[in-house]
Write a structure and sequence with these properties.
Order of helices and strands: HHHHHHHHHHHHHH
Helix content: over 70%
Subcellular location: Membrane
Number of helices: 14
Domain MCAfunc: 25-167
Main location: membrane
Distance between the termini: 123 Å
Organism: Arabidopsis thaliana x Arabidopsis arenosa
Largest sheet: none
GO molecular function, one term: calcium channel activity
Structural class: mainly alpha
Shape: elongated
């Protein structure tokens, strides 16, 4: 496989950064790390380490050591390493999500290599390590203590397994891809994101062919096939999901209808029972009224009317 830096298109891009000093390059790397779409944790860790180095460089710049050729010449190599580091971090923002996913552990190794290379330039400058300046010594010790571990996130490893495994079903790969691309392209629909990914992958395929990197060409072609397959599976998958939603809605309506019907029958029985009770009470009331010939006022005017129709003897 070709050199890892070449895989990121570093050769052409580094030339465009010529003339930018170390402090500005570190600032550019920190900004790019904040907007990375892939390897976010690795980018943030790397940026944090470079901030410590920026503190050291600022301290050197403000001291009399800044004018010494023994300091300036070796630090020019640091500028080159920072330019390559910027390309690495920027790639995590701009390159194909699937490409970065497939290159996962290779990208992790590049972060480790970049940090070791940058730290090495500081160690090979004798005057920095022998400096009497307390602040410079403090900055150096902070850099030495900052040992970072770069890795591939567990979720990215799972997605990588599903996408790259030949035995994965088209539906499973499409489902996982839809979930992950929605995070990488929050302002795009799934089909548009697939198209963007395929265009970026085609560009990576051209670069790999130019380097005669057969292994990488095979991996990238596999990723292109995944995007094309997902584009054909997606409409059918949407139809299946829509049908499931319709069936679920229909079942809910049926359940609601059955519940309403049961409630109506229960209300009907309740109403019938209450009506019967009212009728029973009304009948008893009429019966009592039938047992008396007159009401209370009639009894007052004619006491003999207060006698029940059926005499009861005790």
């Amino acid at each position: 496989m070709a050199n890892s830096w070449d895989q990121l298109g570093e050769i052409a891009s580094v030339a465009q950064l010529t003339g930018i000093d170390a402090l500005k390059l570190i600032g550019m790397i920190v900004n790019a790390a904040n907007t990375a779409r892939m390897h976010k944790k690795n980018c943030r860790q790397f940026a944090h380490h470079l901030k410590l180095i920026r503190n050291l460089l600022e301290q050197i710049k403000n001291s009399e050591m800044n004018q010494r050729s023994e300091i300036l010449e070796p630090l020019q190599g640091l500028d080159d390493a920072l330019r390559r580091s910027y390309i690495l971090v920027k790639s995590c923002q701009e390159k194909s999500y699937l490409y970065l996913l497939a290159m996962g552990w290779n990208i992790v190794n590049q972060f480790e290599k970049a940090q070791n290379e940058i730290d090495l330039f500081l160690k090979i400058v004798p005057l920095i390590n022998m400096a009497d300046n307390a602040r410079i010594r403090e900055r150096l010790e902070a850099i030495e203590r900052d040992q970072r571990e770069y890795t591939l996130d567990e979720e990215d490893r799972k997605v990588q397994d599903v996408i790259l495994k030949q035995e994965s079903t088209r539906e499973a790969a499409t489902s996982v891809l839809k979930k992950t691309l929605s995070r990488s392209y929050p302002n795009m629909g799934f089909c548009e994101a697939l198209k963007t990914e395929e265009e970026k992958l085609q560009l990576e395929l051209q670069r790999s062919r130019a380097r005669y990197d057969a292994d990488q060409c095979e991996v990238i072609q596999r990723l292109i096939d995944v995007t094309q397959t997902a584009a054909t599976v997606e409409p059918n998958l949407e139809k299946v999901l829509t049908k499931k939603e319709e069936l679920t809605s229909s079942k809910k309506r049926d359940d609601l209808y059955d519940t309403d019907s049961s409630s109506i029958r229960a209300d009907s029985r309740s109403t019938s029972y209450v009506s019967s009770g009212h009728e029973l009470l009304s009948g008893r009331s009429l019966q009592h009224r039938g047992n008396w010939h007159a009401d209370l006022l009639d009894c007052c005017s004619e006491p003999c009317l207060c006698k029940p129709s059926h005499s009861v003897f005790i």
